[in-house]
Structure formats: C-alpha cells, structure tokens
Sequence to fold (182 residues):
Amino acid sequence: MRRKKDSTEKADSLNNAKDTAVSTGLVGDTVTVAPAIVVTADDAKFAVDAANGGMAEVDLGALAKNKATNAGVKDFAAMMVADHSKANDELKALAQKLNITLPATINDEVIKIKEDLSKKSAAEFDKAYVSAMVTDHKKDVKMFEDAAKNNKSEDLKAFAAKTLPTLKHHLETIQKIEDRIK
Fold:
C-alpha cells in the first residue's frame, strides 16, 4: 500500500510542478493548473522547510506550555508560540507574494515527536522537550544562515536574515535551560 504524502511533501510536489512548468515553457498553457513560482526550487524548499519548522515550534510550544513543570521551560514554550507565530505569518504573506505553496499542517516527523512528547511523564517531558528544541534550533540556525547567504530570492534572503537573530536567541536560551535542568 502506498504511503499518503504529508502536508510538507504535498507542498514540495506542488512547488516542483510549478517550477517545472516554468522551465518547460508550459506557463499559460491549459496544462498548467497554477501560476509559476517566481523563485528557484531551492528557495521554495527553504520556504516549505521554514514553514514546517515554524509550525512545529508553535505546536510543540503549545504542548509544552500545558505539560511542562519547569517555569523556564514554560516561559520558553510561550516564547516559541509568540515568536514563531509571528514569523509564520510573515512567511505566509511572502509565500503568497512569490506563489510558493506552503504546508498546511506539520509533517509526519513532527507529529511523531509531538505524540512521543505527549506520552512522557511530567518529569521526563521537560528534558525531552528541551533536548528536542536544542537539536531543532541548531538545525534551524544553520538552515537560516545558509538561506540568508545563498537564496536567490532577495525577499526570502531578507526574511532569513531578519529571522536569524531570533533563532539564535532561542538557541542560546534553550541551551541555558538545558544546562540548568540536567
């Protein structure tokens, strides 16, 4: 049986189809069902990955606000919901302008992380959430640094550069929390 694509995979497929329509000259042809994206496939992939990551931070942050026992973890979770909701809104507006399809929901990998975290006891939850946030923010900082330097779209490059200091602050904050709760 074929596995159903998650929202991130669907967004990537749609963006690839739009990119192919441009590169094959099918824009305007009745075969093309959506306008072409105005960025490279790599730039569209960054937008999709950033959107998925942002939605993950909001969903996991909401879970942590309710389930965490450590006050620092709860405060960090609230910061995740606020900061990433704002960045997600900015990215959605930018994606609409650039005709990039973003995922509507978190992907299967994040759903699994959320389910695993949900099953943890209160004592285990804080450490597991903090560990996940350290790992995720290290990955995010690298992805946004790369995008700020290498994206072809000036709009996406500017978004990455603007968001990067916030992500670095998140990483520093969660690493300090991790050191305190070990």
